[in-house]
Design goal:
disordered N terminus, four-stranded antiparallel beta sheet, mainly beta, about 425 residues
Length: about 425
Amino acid sequence: MKPARSFVALTMGSLLLFPLGVATAAPAAAAPHQGVVGESPVGWTPHVLDGSVKDILRIGDTVVVAGDFGRVSDAGGDGTHDRRNLFAFRHGSGEILEDFTPSVNGIVNSLAEGPDGSVILGGRFDQVNGKSSRGVARIDATAGENVDGFDATVGNGSVYRLASDGTDVYLGGDFSAVNGESRTGLARVDATDGSVDADFAPTISEQRRGSLRVQELALSPDGRRLAVNGTFTKVDGEDRYQIAMIDTDSAGPTPWSTSAYEEPCDYKPMHTYMRQMDFSPDGSYFAVVTAGGPQVKPGLCKSTARFENDSTPDAEPTWTNLTGGDSLYSVEVTSDAVYVGGHQRWMDNEQGALNPGPGSVEREGIAAVDPTSGRALGWNPGRSRGHGVEALHATSDGLYVGSDTERLGGSHHARLGMFPAS
């Protein structure tokens, strides 16, 4: 499975020795691509004509795209379709699926694969196909109709990120309850019927700024660990500054912790500068990307960092890679690359301060980092920066990219594109 996106199967290839005490996932039928993808996007992906893409999920040959938009078109620019915040197309041809027409009355932030090839939605909405369904819903992947019996709903907030192992679905956001049961920003529900798991109730508390929220979460390939980040500074009363690792069996924090994100790093309107996380295919490590305020400050704002998936208290990152002043929003880890997206101008720019410092390399809006060294790989397709890439999704034959701009790899790909495996 791929945390928060799908259970696309994972490879076992690790570039470092696997740490003791961390189980591996059994290999499945189709794995994310090997090597690094090419720099020229395929020509068949549809265009998203307004707004932005927040997440992408492939189930078989169906690709579901979520975000904040209203219109899409075929790859050739013809055949405009009204599709509010959600649509699907055929992988390999780009054919927009005419029968998949769910009605969602708000932004869809996150997608996860549910039982029987269904799609679970998370976001800022309160109705799906006219049915009351706040923040989370389950629909079929054929017509986008509500799946009978799934009745989860969040209270007083929205869902920012989902993760699923096929049996359970983890919800992260700024909500205060799920199905009427008190849950602050983090919950686990049954993937079939949406019922709340009473045994999973970690408590996040003492926000650094703003309101309590889980900004992002990622599930390890074996399903035993859940990485969460957000505005909190404690989990179950233990110090965990903006990031924690939850044991999914005991439902409490593991001994792993880090002080790497204690620097202020941002400005007051930004409640947290933490952004996406992703585990390596073998589960031995995970990568974290961050945003930040308008100035360059000490710490790990506007960076990507690797942490080992172990039980080390006050862990230091294995490596870091700073942009020198530009935010990163998305990360996707394969066996050979840590892909990152945002609105960065450079990577390897630890000494830069809104300028290219010594040793920096130009990487416009998208980059690939070596999993072992943490230095930027040669892959450099470029894209118009805009706000930035918020959706990366690796498949067996390429890398899907979703953003808010129209140039990708030197050609026109409005808000959506796919780099093929090379």
